[in-house]
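User: Please check token order:
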Amino acid sequence: MSTRGLNFFNRWMSAHLPNATTDDPAAVADLAGEMMKAAEREGIPANEINEEVSVFELVFEAMQHREGSSTQGDQTVRALLAGRLAREAQITEEQARELINLVGTDWSSLLREAHFLKERDL
């Protein structure tokens, strides 16, 4: 997810997330669809939001943890990115989380740094 996509996701979810928690897939899918349409209206293409992560999963996590702070979406994105980065770059999730904290959420930069890290450890 691009930084612009992450910022949009956090802003939109904090304004539109229902007060009730749910595990209803239809409700989650509807909310994810609304968010993607809103992003398009703001000129943010879908690939800036769902390139590395599933929007459905992000919305589902946010709805499950509704009582959390406004940074819940950001934490969810970072956790999903860390898992994917660890798998794709063959580094530990701890290393992936550390890279995300240092580099941010730009996928290309994360992959580049993860590959440097892996080569250094060989």
